[in-house]
Amino acid sequence: MLSAARTPPSLATLVVLSWLSILTLNMFLPSLSAMAKDFGTDYGLVALAVAGYLAVTGVVMLVAGPLSDRFGRRPVILVALAIFVPATIVCSLTEDIWVFLAFRVLQGAVISGWTISLAIIRDTAPPQEAASRIGYITMAMAVAPMLGPVIGGFLDGFFGWRSVFWSLAGMGVLGFCLVWLDLGETNQNRSETLAKQIASYPTLLTSQRFWGFAICLAFTTGGFYSFLAGAPLVAINILGITPAELGVYIGSITSGFFVGSFLSGRLAKHFALTTMMVTGRIVTCVGLSAGLILLFSDVVHVASFFGATLFVGLGNGLTSPSCNAGVVSIEPKLAGSASGLAGAVTLGCGAVLTSMVGGVVRGEDAAHVLIAILLLLAALSLLAALFVRRLDRRQDQVAPPHSP
Q1: 63 in Cβ contact with 115 (< 8 Å)
Q2: Distance between CA 246 and CA 237 in Å, rounded?
Q3: What is the predicted pLDDT for the residue at 348?
Q4: Of the candidates 253, 252, 229, 233, which has an alpha carbon nearest to the alpha carbon of residue 241?
Q5: Which of 6, 186, 201, 244 sits between 20 and 30 A of 44, alpha carbons compared?
Q6: Residue 355 — left, alpha, or beta (φ > 0 → left; ψ -120 to 50 → alpha)?
């Protein structure tokens, strides 16, 4: 029997690692007000726990991926969890807001689980099979953003906000044990030295296909971030939805993503990556175009607005797994680096779009403006997908015929 250190991990292990990175971001959100009161500080300062976490995860993605290419997937994830657990315990114990924020930033190490999981999948499967597996993982991940705040709110209500971080620490310990027992090393092509690894980066950084995949992914995910930034304003000020109802309607985009990811899991192994990407982008563009036509026809209604944005989630679920599989397939020896770089680009794009949408989506035409922005982002991501498909077709035309 092969030891755990040699066997590839189960899909369930990769799902757990991905869930942990999401729950760490959103599980404590219902507790922000209580935390501000407990620390005796402003809500805005405590809210830095969200912004700071997002900022550091971008850096971690850039670092963890290359480290996993050089030293292996398994040790980097274990080290990341070994940092995450003590940092989370300090967050649950400290009485000082600045100590809390400092160790909250260290919690960002857990994002390595998602970044390296993509590389692990590519290590163990060809591109189309990898897209299928990523589809199933993202389908499971779609549940975490909905469950995280619910679980956190329950824990806060019964045991106080610190119990949320104790729970995350416990999950981190379980994750560490699961990785130790189940996640074997899958990187069989590690660089001999860091210098040799760096010398191979131009192959990745100058690849038009890599940037096509990465840009498509960035604008695809950017649509989701833009929706989150603008939908609450439209829902409450334009559509008259109560805050209590808002969570249900915002969940519509997640339900669409769940269905799209499920379809990717079923279909991606049978179709080219670019076929899945283009299909997902067309689905999004068609849905948003229909919604925009209804809005300009004065059909400003919950169904016309959230019905249109439902297609954002559905299209993203069809597109994202194939984008991620394409990113980590450009140069298999640099799969971790590629995953980290694409993830950082996506986070940066999301941060810029979120800031922009907050300043542009306002007034009586807020619904029209937001849907138009989402449609523009979907169109740009479609162009990127078509660009990659064109490159692939050109490469197929110049490739030498296979010998009989």
Answers
A1: no
A2: 12
A3: 82
A4: 233
A5: 244
A6: alpha
Mean pLDDT for all residues in the chain: 85
Contact 131, 266 (CB under 8 A): no
Q: For residue 188, how far is the Cα from the chain centroid?
A: 26
CB atoms < 10 A from the CB of 54, how many? 16
Tokens of 75: 């040790």
Residue 3 has a pLDDT of 45
> How many other C-beta atoms can be found within 10 angstroms of the C-beta atom of residue 324?
30
Distance from the Cα of residue 381 to its chain's centroid:
16
Task: Please answer whether residues 42 and 125 qualify as being in contact, where contact means their C-beta atoms are separated by less than 8 angstroms.
Answer: no
Question: What single-letter DSSP state applies at residue 40?
Answer: T
Q: How far apart are CA 374 and CA 195, in angstroms?
A: 42
CA distance 183 to 180: 6
Torsion of CA 121, 125, 129, 135, to 10 degrees: 0
3-state DSSP assignment of residue 189: coil
Q: Across residues 209-233, what is the average pLDDT?
A: 88
Query: What does the block give as tokens for 85?
Result: 């657990």
Question: Which residue's structure tokens are 């806060």?
Answer: 156
Tokens found for residue 365: 């035409």
